[in-house]
Amino acid sequence: MRTLAVVPEMLRHVTATRYAVPLREGGSLPGIVEADDLGMYVTKMRGAGQGVRVLAAEVLVAGLAAEVGVPVPELVTVELSSEIARWEADEEVQDLLTASVGLNLGMDYLPGAFGYDGSRPADRDLAAAILWLDAFTANVDRTWANPNLLRWHERVWAIDHGAALYFHHAWARKAPDAERFVRAPYDTSQHVLADVAAPVEPVHDRALAALDEEAIAALVERVPDEWLPPGEQLKSAESVRGAYRDHLAQRLRHPEHWLPGGAR
Ligand SMILES: Nc1ncnc2c1ncn2[C@@H]1O[C@H](COP(=O)(O)OP(=O)(O)O)[C@@H](O)[C@H]1O
Ligand SMILES: [Mg+2]
After folding, report:
1. Residue 102 and residue 120 in one domain
2. Where is the HipA-like kinase domain (predicted)?
3. What are φ and ψ of residue 19, in 5° steps?
4. Which residue's alpha carbon is at the smallest distance from atom 14 of ligand 1?
5. What's the pLDDT tens digit per position in 62-109?
6. Rounded Cα distance, 3 and 211, in Å
7. Does the Cβ of 23 fall within 6 Å of ligand 1?
8. How far is the CA of 42 from the centre of ligand 1 (A)?
9. pLDDT tens per residue across span 195-225
10. I need a surface site. Which of 48, 88, 154, 197 has the fewest CB within 10 A?
11. Distance from residue 26's CA to the centre of ligand 2 (Å)
12. Which of 76, 108, 140 is the last residue of a domain?
């Protein structure tokens, strides 16, 4: 049975053949990597300071985005070998690559994309979908200082969702607390699309239809085990998956706490 309408059930897997260039504007020092399928991928390294949970957030939020109609570049898993780290001349990058041998997250590189600056505002309905996505996943990384939106081929694309679903950082030590996440309000005052977005209620209705229990479970399945570290309470990747399913399903059912506009 197919439960996901847009994204594939598994991330495609590629192997890095060359580290091309670091993207220094980003805080996590992502780099552009060429892979064995000749694609170029903006790659977030497992060895970056934020840890692998941010990679899980990227996969989960991009999946949710695509299923509710927000364009996101394709995500892949990128295998990085120690060879590539060894030949890197930049010391800072070499350290990061050495710490990232194994499975990293790649995002299809959109050549020539412009950073979103509002000079051509996003379409109202798409803006509403992105605002809904950020409120649902508690993503604070969509401000004018840091829009994390690209304009490419006449469309607006959403990137960089590592800051969303921040609750999982507590899972290293604490038991999950879905109730707390369900009730967390979302402040739209700094959101880059707050002024242009159409009402978000129709997006929420669409999301309820698209994101039933099976779909949420399937989106959680897309995250590789390597990015679901166990903690003191959640002792296996499978229990971490269960916590994500639970948090997302419960928050979806209680928009009265977080849906912008507060109409519910
Ligand atoms: N898929 C992509 N295609 C083209 N440029 C990208 C892509 N992803 C990121 N970038 C560029 O790299 C920058 C940093 O990437 P981002 O995902 O925001 O990382 P960080 O977590 O470091 O902020 C972005 O602001 C954007 O300019
Ligand atoms: Mg960013």
Report:
1. no
2. 24-258
3. -95, 115
4. 26
5. 999 999 999 999 999 999 999 999 989 999 999 999 999 999 999 999
6. 9
7. yes
8. 7
9. 999 999 999 999 999 999 999 999 999 999 9
10. 154
11. 5
12. 108
Mean pLDDT taken over the chain: 96
Per the rule left: phi > 0, alpha: psi between -120 and 50, beta: everything else, 112 is: left
CA–CA dist 167, 186 (Å, integer)? 14
Torsion angle, alpha carbons of 55, 58, 59, 61, to 10: 150
Tokens of 131: 């605002």
Q: Is residue 263 one of the residues assigned to a domain?
A: no
Separation CA 230–CA 49 (nearest Å):
18
Domain count, the chain: 2
Residues of the domain holding 93 = 12-108
Residues 100, 46: contact at Cβ < 8 Å? yes
